[in-house]
Design goal:
By secondary structure, the protein is mainly α. Strand 2 and strand 3 form a beta hairpin. The structure holds protoporphyrin IX containing FE and iron/sulfur cluster (2 copies). Protoporphyrin IX containing FE binds next to helix 3, helix 5, helix 6 and helix 9. Protoporphyrin IX containing FE (HEM) binds next to helix 3, helix 5, helix 6 and helix 9.
Length: 404
Amino acid sequence: MSAQPIEAVERDDVLQPRHPYRRFLRSATRWQVAVERKVNELVSYEQNPFYFHGALPTFVFWMLIASGIGLLFYYKATLTESYESLVYLAKVPFGNCIRSSHRYSADAMLLAIYLHTFRVYITDRHREYRIVPWLTGVVLLLLTYVAGISGYMLVGDQRSWGLIHQSVQAFQAVPLVGDFLASQVLAGPDITDYTVARALFFHLLSAMAIFWFLWMHLLRIRRPFMIVTIGIGAAVVGVILMVAGLWPAGSYTPVVEPMHVPEAYEIGNWLYLPGFWLLSSAGPLAFWGAVVLLFGGLLMLPYLLRDTRRNIAMVVRDKCVGCQLCAIDCPYSAITMVPTWNERKKKPDLLAVVYPPRCSECGVCIGSCDFDAIELSSMPYRPIEDLVKELAPKREAPAEAAGD
Ligand code: HEM
Ligand code: SF4
Ligand code: SF4
């Protein structure tokens, strides 16, 4: 079969995909773009939250860190004092505001992450060369849950002890390592001061791990969009402060006797704690089933569809002068400069090397290279005039012109 029909078939498949899942993603992207255009009309391009889907969780995360540092000045991580130390915040200037902003920023963070995940999935920006941001993103989601749940364990009220107790039960149900995991949550055989300290440790550790995974998350994105506009930032801060003012964060009844774990307690937060409702109503098996389904499903999602990759960038070795411009410009860090020996100059030099799985076939590097040293490996030759003709908007000729 000649090359021409294969190219024609591939081009058709790109324009009108035959694979049902690919067709779904294509039309979902179109719907999403249509929604985003409507939002542009309402609030302008600069204030459209969909365009700041990655910057939003980053921004809220900074709010969490700032308010969390404020809380650390007053929080006492012991069984008897944790509850009182948080209640005491009401007497400190802006104390309640700091506590409430911390709690509502945590909610906002999860909502922002859901928006971000939805946007990258629905616009098909979660597969192939974006696999690293997606997989590390799933870890970031898990870490956000760990930070949130361990945060609720710190309050020292009925709910805290209920959460600790149920977590222990859930971990004990894990085969082989269950008792070990449970003892890590408790930091001993029972709920003690060490348990509170351990919850604080997990809380801070997961926040720090978010930093680490965020770095990995953005490693393959050369110019991540990480800053929200002043308008969006002000709106987020304003809403969080307003909610904090209207419904200040509080605690449930304190536990008089911590060893006496409450039979039932109020879940209160349905963003972070629905798993605990599942635990008490359906048991550990259902809980772990839901966890595996959610996180396993998210991890598998990018592998449901594979693209045929034919236009991966290729460096023409003899032409590359090692200027590094392509490596700087490549949006997905697909080009690495490797040391080599320049036979012509008889001295060590640098050579650009493309790492194919990271290449998005975007062609940016072709534009970066002033030395004609990069080609897309199987880009069919198309005269530029043909492309211009094909891309030009097709308009009806005006009536008078047609008559001439
Ligand atoms: C702590 C939570 C998270 C933060 C702070 C965060 C932040 C970011 C930022 C700043 C970007 C760059 C966005 C851009 O340049 O347009 C990004 C990209 C991305 N994120 Fe996240 N993210 C988080 C969680 C997640 C989760 C849970 C997922 C999915 C499971 C995810 C998947 C992705 C993907 C696939 C990209 C690449 C998108 C592209 O190249 O257009 N992220 N993230
Ligand atoms: S821009 Fe061209 S010449 Fe410069 S390093 Fe890249 S491939 Fe080599
Ligand atoms: S085509 Fe070039 S610029 Fe684009 S991702 Fe591949 S190597 Fe990077």
